[in-house]
Amino acid sequence: MAPQRRTPPPEAPRRGGSSTAGRPAPAAGPRTPGLVAVLGAFLVTLVAAAADSYIGIGLGTITLAALTVSSGFAALVVRRRDLVTVLVSPPLVFIGVALLNIVLAPSATFTLPTLATLLVRGFPAMAIATGAAVAVSLFRLVTRR
Length: 145
What we know:
Blueprint (H helix, E strand, L loop, with lengths): L33 H22 L5 H17 L5 H22 L7 H32 L2
């Protein structure tokens, strides 16, 4: 008699390990962690603030544009679960940049009135950047991207 070939039985999916059988494929999309996105927005805004301080006095239009664009971009590339981190970051990023601007500017002294003036003048920048991040986040949530 000739030996018969036997096909091995199909393997059942394992529980644990590195097998991805039975699991849905990970969603394709942004994978940037929230902290990295906020740090990127901070660095872009800091460079713009340096340019703004070099050209004029204080934080102005260049800082506003950089904070708005970087916050919107951060909301676009961040992981979905880190969207809230990016939404609350524009005011914090602006405050950090303003503090560094006061400390590094040779003509400014670090006093409470100086900080208050920068924050009051920077409120529109913080509000516009937060609005841009909210708009991009809503777009992502609506389109499931």
